[in-house]
Write a structure and sequence with these properties.
With 349 residues, this protein is an alpha/beta fold. The chain contains 13 helices and 14 strands. It has a 9-stranded mixed beta sheet, sandwiched between helices.
């Protein structure tokens, strides 16, 4: 799994004749969110298979790292699931664009060997993470799971220790379902957790849960599925029990009637019988003016890759439990990408 989350795909430098090697390679570095890492790995592998002169590298170090490295212009693009704040955008040396790539669900993974099916509400999850529900057989949990023999066992809370867009989506959800969470802890990529054990990355959270009976934590669905982790169903805003799925994310997206011009949006706790409540977009961060890179070929390849992800790459999203961009969002993204310039000229025509 670590190989999947530390993506480094080297491009093949072979011509069709096999007799010579292209002399010039273009290196493009990305850093950021772990949430989309399985899909980004697939995209990079597929793109490099047809673009032999491009060396793409994406390090899934967390959204905090993605924001930091794009702000400091270390990486050519950043990845984040938590949109940058107004203050962070002001601290950047120039205008940064948020490009939605796909949307996906997060799940509550748990370690109760004898419990194969578990239902949780947003309120219950908030109470657990606030340290108010401390036992698995708490009356609030047993009421959600009639007929299930929940054990008298301590709940061990796991959370991210690094700056994380996965945390941004999760705490955004908690702010909507719990006024106490909103007032006390708030919504950010990194928060002061009331309780719990920190783990770096999704694998760190998963390790705490896997090695601790009674553990609970949050990771994206793709990671949970690939790691064979059991996870709870959620009771959504409409009071319906929903299992994390692409369809649940698509249903949540439908309630965003007008996508904001800056693309920063939340789709947690949306109404509707089918909406999955812990859902969010993941973003690619790039500067609108890429002249600072001083390499037109690099800029062209970067934008060609991003454009490919927004179009051809969307077809691969469902295979890894991510929801492709809705048509209206894709059109808005296309228009935004055409505003990116190098030396005063649009990079994409």
């Amino acid at each position: 799994m670590r190989l999947l989350y530390q993506v480094s795909v080297l491009s093949m430098l072979v011509l069709a004749s096999g007799s010579s090697v292209r002399a010039e390679n273009i290196s493009i570095q990305g850093v950021g969110a772990t949430f989309p890492a399985p899909l980004y790995a697939k995209w990079i592998f597929q793109y490099n298979s047809t673009h032999a002169n491009v060396k793409l590298d994406y390090q899934a170090l967390g959204s905090g790292a993605g924001i930091k490295q794009i702000t400091e212009r270390i990486a050519q693009f950043g990845g984040t699931d938590g949109p940058m704040t107004d203050e962070q955008l002001k601290d950047a040396p120039a205008k940064i664009l948020h490009i939605p790539m796909v949307a996906g669900p997060e799940v509550m993974v748990y370690n109760l060997p004898d419990i194969k099916e578990l239902k949780l509400s947003g309120e219950a999850v908030a109470e657990i993470y606030l340290g108010r529900i401390t036992k698995w057989n708490d009356p609030k949990l047993t009421a959600l799971n009639p007929g299930v023999n929940l054990p008298e066992k301590d709940i061990v809370v796991a959370h991210r220790s690094d700056g994380s867009g996965t945390t941004w989506i999760f705490t955004n959800f908690l702010c909507k379902v719990s006024p106490d969470w909103k007032n006390r802890v708030k919504n950010a990529t990194s928060v002061k957790w009331p309780i719990g054990i920190g783990g770096k990355g999704n694998d760190g959270v998963a390790k705490v849960v896997q090695t601790t009976e009674g553990g609970i934590g949050y990771v994206e669905l793709a990671y949970a599925e690939q790691s064979h982790l059991q996870y709870a169903s959620q009771i959504n805003k409409a009071g319906k029990v929903v299992r994390a799925s692409i369809d649940g994310v698509v249903a949540a997206q439908k309630y965003i009637t007008e996508f904001p011009d800056d693309m920063r949006v939340s789709i947690t706790d949306e109404p509707g019988d089918d909406s999955y409540p812990i859902s969010g977009y993941t973003y690619l961060l790039i500067y609108q003016d890429l002249s600072y890179l001083k390499n037109k070929d690099q800029v062209t390849e970067l934008m060609n890759y991003v454009n490919w992800c927004v179009h051809e790459g969307q077809e691969m999203a469902k295979e890894l439990n991510f929801a492709p961009l809705p048509d209206e969002v894709q059109k808005k993204v296309e228009a935004e990408l055409k505003t990116v310039v190098f030396d005063g000229q649009p990079v994409l025509k």
